[in-house]
Each structure stands twice: as C-alpha cells, then as structure tokens.
Design a protein that fits this description.
This protein has about 200 residues and is α+β, with helices and mostly antiparallel strands. It folds into 2 domains: about 80 residues; about 80 residues, General secretion pathway protein M, EpsM (Gyrase A, domain 2), CATH 3.30.1360.100. Helices cover about 60% and strands about 20% of the residues. The chain is built from 4 helices and 4 strands; from the N terminus they run H-H-E-H-E-H-E-E. Strands 1-2-4-3 form a 4-stranded antiparallel sheet. A hairpin with a 2-residue loop joins strand 3 and strand 4. The longest helix has about 80 residues. It starts with 9 loop residues before the first helix and ends with a strand.
C-alpha cells in the first residue's frame, strides 16, 4: 500500500477550494444573467409580435366594420332594386291600362297631340235608371256594363292627312276590333289652328 502525502499547505488548499467555489458561482451567475437576458429578449420579441398582432387585429376589425356597413348599404340598395323590379313586373303583367297607354303613345305621330283618353262608358259598372223590367235588364246587361266597352280619344292633328295616318295605324293594329272617327273640325290650337277630333276604339 502506497501512502499519499498532501504537500499543499492547509491555507493554500482552503484558498484553492474557495477559488473553485467562486469560479463556479461566477459561472453560474453568468449563466443565470445570460439566461435572464435571453428570456428578456424572447419576452420582448414576443411582446413586439403581440403588439403587431394587436395592430393587425385592430385593422382587421376596422375593415370588417367597414365591410359590414357597406354590406348593409348594398343590402338596402338590393332590397330597393328588388322592390322596383317587383313593381315594374306588376305594372307589366297586371296593369293592362299601362300597356294600352304605352301602345297608344307608340302609335301617335309627331303631328298629332292627344289631350284625353278615357273609357266608354266613363264609369264602368255604373247602372242608369231602369225604365222597363229593371231586374231583367240588369241581368241581361250586367256583365257587359261591368267593364269598359270602348276607348274614347280626343286630340288635335295638324291636318286631315296626319289624322288619317293615325287612324290607319290604329286600324292596322291588333288591339282594337274597330276604330271610328266621331267628328273632326278646325279649332284654334296653340298659336294657330288645328284639327280637333274624337275617336272611339271598340274591343
């Protein structure tokens, strides 16, 4: 067995152990400071990312609110357009008088001016006094009097040729069964003279 002899003086040995401990503590402190610094940098970077994300989220919320307002405006405009389309469709399909007036406007020459268009009789369905067997006359004519029998048109033309052209257009169309000229005569019109006329168009 070999005996070992420690030749290092006790004081030096203690100082050496203390230096080793101090160096270990220093290394641990440096590592701790470096770790805290890295954690701080990471936290700062994360905080910056969170701040940027919050800004992006705020911008997205603002854009979403703007899109919502635009969507409401578009929805209101779409609803108004659909309402107009429904009204136009109802006018096109359900209002025969609108189509009839449009047809007449398309047939009128530039040299003819219409001043009145009315149904004949003017009040469909209104009965007159019953002079003979009132109920029988009512039953015989009830359904005929419930709707207009003809259309009365009054207007002015520059001359007989213009009036004849208007009559021919109405007679050649397929809307009326017959078109009759009730009367025509020269009358003052605007700053000159025109041919006043009255037509009756029967279905």
């Amino acid at each position: 067995m070999i005996a070992t002899i420690d030749l290092i003086p006790p004081g030096l040995h203690q100082r050496r152990c203390r230096w080793v401990r101090l160096r270990a503590y220093g290394t641990l402190l440096v590592l701790l400071v470096v770790g805290i610094g890295l954690a701080g940098l990471q936290t700062s970077r994360r905080a910056r990312q969170v701040h940027e994300l919050n800004q992006v989220a705020a911008q997205l919320r603002s854009a979403q609110a703007r899109l919502d307002r635009q969507g409401l405006a578009v929805s209101a405009e779409l609803a108004g357009t659909q309402r107009l389309l429904r009204e136009a469709e109802r006018l096109r399909n359900g209002h025969r008088w609108s189509r009839l007036l449009a047809y007449l406007a398309a047939q009128v020459p530039d040299s003819v001016l219409l001043v009145m268009v009315s149904t004949d009789p003017a009040e469909p369905g209104k009965r007159g006094s019953r002079t003979r067997s009132g109920r029988q006359a009512h039953n015989a004519q009830g359904r005929q009097n419930d709707r207009p029998q003809a259309l009365a048109i009054r207007g002015y033309a520059l001359g007989h040729t213009d009036l004849a052209a208007f009559l021919r257009k109405l007679q050649e169309g397929e809307v009326f069964d017959s078109v009759s000229l009730l009367h025509s005569k020269r009358e003052p019109f605007l700053e000159g003279e025109g041919l006043a006329f009255t037509l009756t168009c029967h279905w």
